[in-house]
Structures are given as structure tokens and as C-alpha cells.
Amino acid sequence: MSFTFNGISKDFVHVTIETERPIWAPVEREIVEIPGRQGAYLRRTKTKPRILAVNIVIKGVSDLQKAKEEIADWLITDEPEALIFPDEPDRTYYGMIDGEGQLAELFKFGKATVNFICPDPYKYGLEHSFEIGNPPDPIGHVQSAGSAPTYPIVECTFAEPADQYEIQLLNDDESVKAFVLLNFDFIAGDQLILDFANRSATLNGEDKKTAYHHTSDFFKIPPKRDTLIRVTQPSTIRFTDKYK
Questions:
Q1: Residue 66: phi, psi to the nearest 5?
Q2: Is the CATH number 2.40.30.200 carried by domain 4-121?
Q3: Residues 28, 44: Cα–Cα separation, whole Å
Q4: What kind of fold does domain 124-243 have according to CATH?
Q5: What whole-number percentage of the chain has pLDDT above 70?
Q6: Do 96 and 54 form a contact (C-beta atoms < 8 A)?
Q7: Are 186 and 161 in contact (CB under 8 A)?
Q8: Does the pLDDT at position 17 exceed 80?
Q9: CB atoms within 10 A of CB 45
Q10: Model confidence over 130-144: pLDDT tens digits?
């Protein structure tokens, strides 16, 4: 079977059994030793881009050279695109090809290794959507099934005027762990969308990120636990499960 890249698959491109995907993206530790002290301490941890070497065969084509052109047109992109493998259909990588496309050719048959680099080293699963803050309880419960924290997108349609909007990530005792606050004179019917990953805010389609309070902390949804979220207006929060 072929893989799917940028929403497209080719029935003449087949992933071989030799293809190997690393268990996790490379993890780089910066360790500092201090003279006179035992051992060392961890200064920082960095997750580096994930590299996927995909072995493919090209077969069942009438013109191998034209097939190579079609593959190049398919795989060469300016930005990372969705990459899905047939044996892992519920996970999505975001990658782009890196390096050359050398093909071992024999008449109408070809074999090659295609290297994808994923600047975002994580892979993604299902998207979840939760309605939170509906009266009488301003606190909602959300859950991510992933293994890594993930940024949410929050949408709110104001039912009444308000001079601010706030969403809070709570501890188990309902104390505030982090929050995002906007100060603005909202009116009934206003549609607000907050993208935490990009720290963007749009109100009725217009950029309103200047309304963010400077102390806002664009938090992530933690994995594998029940998470408490409090909002000042009924809202929808959605996010995609993220995996190491």
C-alpha cells in the first residue's frame, strides 16, 4: 500500500517492509558538570526534528520517467504537509522531503528511499471538542488521550455584552494554574476565536490579539488526565491528541 501525503496517495508507489520509523523523535540533553561536585545537572532538554526514511518501490507504470516527474510534483512542497502511513492510519505526521530522490531503476520498476523531515517532531491523533462554561457551572472537564501536551483552540459567541473574556486552566482544587485574559468591549453576537499555539485572537474575523492582557499564559492541555477549565462565557474548546 502507498502512504498518503498532502491528502494524496499514488497507487503505483508502495511502502516496503524495510521502512523503519523511530520510536520517538531525537531527544538532546544538555548536561553540565561542575568541578568539585559529583555527577552533573540537566540544563535543558530539546526535542529535535523527527526524520522518517521511507523505502518505496514504484511498479505498475507504463513510463517510469513520467512517473518520477509525477512523484516529484506530489512530494516537493514548500511547507510540511500531512503524512499518513497505511499501517498507522490514526496518526498524522507533518513533514516535507529532504535531500535527493535517487532511484534504482530497472526498466519500469524503481526502488528508492525518500527522507521526510518533520520540523514538528510530534505526531497527531484525533481532534476533540468540548462545550464548557454552560450555566450554571462555569467549569468544564476536558481530556486528551495523547502522550504530550497540546495547544487548544477556543471559540466563543457572546450571548450578552461583556468587558472581558477569560479562560483559566485549573488545578485539581480549582485554584488557577494559568489563564488567558482579553480586555475588550464585547457585544452580543460577537464571535471570538483564540488559537493558543499561534497566540492569535480574531473577533468577527478581525485580528484582536492586542486585546490580550500582558500576563496571559497560553497554556497547553495536559495528556492522559481529567483537566478542569473555567471560562467567563460559554465556549467550545477543541484540540488534537499529540503523541511523542
A1: -70, -35
A2: yes
A3: 8
A4: Jelly Rolls (2.60.120)
A5: 100
A6: no
A7: yes
A8: no
A9: 9
A10: 999 988 888 999 999
Res 1 pLDDT > 80: no
Measure the CA–CA gap between 62 and 59, rounded to whole angstroms. 9
pLDDT average, residue stretch 100-105: 81
Considering the entire predicted model, what is its pTM? 0.86
Closest Cα partner for 167 from 205, 217, 225? 217
Which residues in 152-199 belong to E strands, given as ranges? 153-157, 162-170, 176-186, 191-195
In tens, the pLDDT along 112-134 reads 899 999 999 999 999 999 999 98
Residues in the chain: 244
CA-based angle 27:84:111, to the nearest 5?
90
User: Taken in order 94, 98, 102, 107, is the CA torsion positive or negative?
Assistant: positive
Per-residue pLDDT at 20 exceeds 90 = no
| Three-state secondary-structure class, residue 19 | coil
* C-alpha cell read off for 158: 457572546
Give the alpha-carbon dihedral of 37, 39, 41, 44, to 10 degrees.
Answer: 140
To the nearest 10°, the Cα dihedral for 53, 58, 63, 68? -10
Strand 235-243 and strand 123-132: pairing? Answer: antiparallel
Main-chain dihedrals φ then ψ at residue 51, nearest 5 degrees: -110, 130
Domain ranges of the chain: 4-121, 124-243
Q: Cell numbers of 34, please?
A: 561542575
